[in-house]
């Protein structure tokens, strides 16, 4: 299925997703929108990785943002964003994960502040981000990707949101992802 088809099938759960989906559909057929060299806006893929028991979430401690965050990265020309999400989990954590669903878990346009990366300045820009639900065995050994994150760890699903220091992500993204996982697989503990 193409990204256009995935986006067209996706049913937004709130106003943010409705607006962001509409904007993403304007970019989806532009090959340059899949390249990070497009310094205004480009597609990225993230993963909300849960364990086989559906009660833990995998996060990495991101170097640029100094916060625990989901895993993901740039499309870099690849229009199969599900494969990008799976690749990024492998690269950023050292583990293998598989898709839990055939559909997108979430869509969001993320603002990225200007920052230094590998000795070069990266201007502020937008990430046209799609998120996939992935499942991985939480007994696999974890390995950080030093140039991107300092650590990788599993957290109980009911504590994962509090691990992030990024308020907007906690309130608007991670809590939404957890609600979707919990609606599918079960309730919070306690």
Helix-strand layout with pairing:
Elements: H1 3-9, H2 15-27, E1 41-51, E2 56-62, E3 67-69, E4 71-74, H3 81-93, E5 98-99, E6 106-112, E7 115-117, E8 120-122, E9 125-136, E10 149-156, H4 160-163, H5 167-185
Parallel strand pairs: 1-9
Antiparallel strand pairs: 1-2, 1-4, 2-3, 2-10, 5-9, 6-9, 7-8
Can you describe what's shown?
This protein has one domain: Nucleoside Triphosphate Pyrophosphohydrolase (Alpha-Beta Complex), CATH 3.90.79. The strands form 2 sheets. Strands 1, 2, 3, 4, 5, 6, 9 and 10 form an 8-stranded mixed β-sheet that branches. Strands 7-8 form a two-stranded antiparallel ribbon. The chain has about 190 residues and is α+β, with helices and mostly antiparallel strands. The chain starts with a helix and ends in a 5-residue tail after the last helix.
What labels describe this entry?
eight-stranded mixed beta sheet; single chain; 10 strands; two-stranded antiparallel ribbon; 32% strand; Nucleoside Triphosphate Pyrophosphohydrolase; alpha+beta; 190 residues
Annotation, overall tally of beta strands: 10
Oligomer: single chain
Q: Class, according to the CATH hierarchy? A: Alpha Beta
Give the CA-CA distance, first to last residue. 39 Å
Q: What letter string, H or E per element, gives the SSE order?
A: HHEEEEHEEEEEEHH
State the CATH superfamily name: Nucleoside Triphosphate Pyrophosphohydrolase
Give me the number of helical elements. Answer: 5
Largest sheet: 8 strands, mixed
Strand residue percentage: 25-35%
C-alpha Rg (nearest Å):
16 Å
